[in-house]
DUF1902 domain-containing protein (Chlorogloeopsis fritschii PCC 6912), 76 residues
Amino acid sequence: MERIVNLHIEKLPEGVYLATSNDIQGLVAQGQTVTETLEIARDVARKLLEAQSQNQELDDLQPIADQFNYPLIVGQ
């Protein structure tokens, strides 16, 4: 089942991007680009959610609805 996880992404002074989430405790991902950071964050989120389900912790994430907003970042 797909879930929505909100990420906070910031560019660090070193030039890399850091993603964290208040939705999934322990989610931290870092990459050279936003795309790479999102890919790593997705993998980390899957692993953390899998570990939570094995521990039978409650899943408070919202399932993806038929309609939702998605911020699209477009560079020039």
Q: What stands out?
A: The chain has a mean pLDDT of 85. Helices lie at 34-54. The CA atoms of residues 15 and 32 lie 7 Å apart.
